[in-house]
Amino acid sequence: MYKADLHIHTILSPCGDLGMSPQNIVDTALSRGLQIIGVTDHNSTRQAPLVKKIGEKHGLLVLCGCEITSKEEAHGLAFFKDDETLNEFQNFLDAHLPNIPNDPDKFGFQVVVDENEEIVYEEPRLLISALDVGLDDLYDEIHRLGGIFIPAHIDKPTTSLMSQLGFVPPDIKADGMELSKFNTPEKFIKRFAYLKKFKFIQSSDAHVLDTIGETFTELNLSELSFEGVRKYLES
């Protein structure tokens, strides 16, 4: 079993605390006994590769991706195997994020830092905006690139499948489902048995260091790798 928290925001997310630097995230994850983390900034993958680079030095598996906001304003987690597909998906995000400027005073800063925690890029567009792409088309693009798609906190009263659509479609294209920390897979499946075909995860959705690993999932993987996570979700 591997202890995983697959929903963590960095300093790049406007709602992310300025202490959420790559080094601090890795150090905190290791101190909490995590073996796998997912980097999921809002509609951007730009900070994830550095977290992965630092994590690899310590045997921490870092899944690089983002938390997407679909046209329906539902959130989903997307992860990619390598830098090439991650960069290709970043180009997709850049093409479909609306040109709404960020207001740092209202929403927070959106910056990418290097290993010395020096700012190397500031995202001018508001990352918490909805893309102009629907859920099914997002799934298709993620899978075209060999990625993993997991609708986020599907039982949450905002920005979730249930809040935006009123239910989880039985034919939803997804590789797994994420529940909020206020539920359990057992309780949820009792109410929505038609979703029992999916693997469920729970994550911290951390925006500050103190909550990293507060909620986690134990994954029974055949190997500690991206492919190991994919195979677990498919089994």
Describe the 3D structure.
- With 235 residues, the chain is of the alpha/beta class.
- Helices cover 29% and strands 21% of the residues.
- It is built from eight helices and ten strands.
- The chain has helices spanning 22-31, 48-56, 83-96, 104-107, 135-144, 161-165, 185-191, 226-234; strands at residues 2-8, 36-42, 61-69, 75-80, 111-113, 119-122, 148-151, 177-179, 200-202, 217-219.
- It has a six-stranded mixed sheet with strand order 7-4-3-2-1-10, sandwiched between helices. It has a two-stranded antiparallel sheet with strand order 5-6. It has a two-stranded parallel sheet with strand order 8-9.
- The longest helix is centred in the middle third of the chain and has 14 residues, at 83-96.
- It starts with a strand and ends with a helix.
- The mean pLDDT is 96.
What is the topological layout?
Blueprint: E1 2-8, H1 22-31, E2 36-42, H2 48-56, E3 61-69, E4 75-80, H3 83-96, H4 104-107, E5 111-113, E6 119-122, H5 135-144, E7 148-151, H6 161-165, E8 177-179, H7 185-191, E9 200-202, E10 217-219, H8 226-234
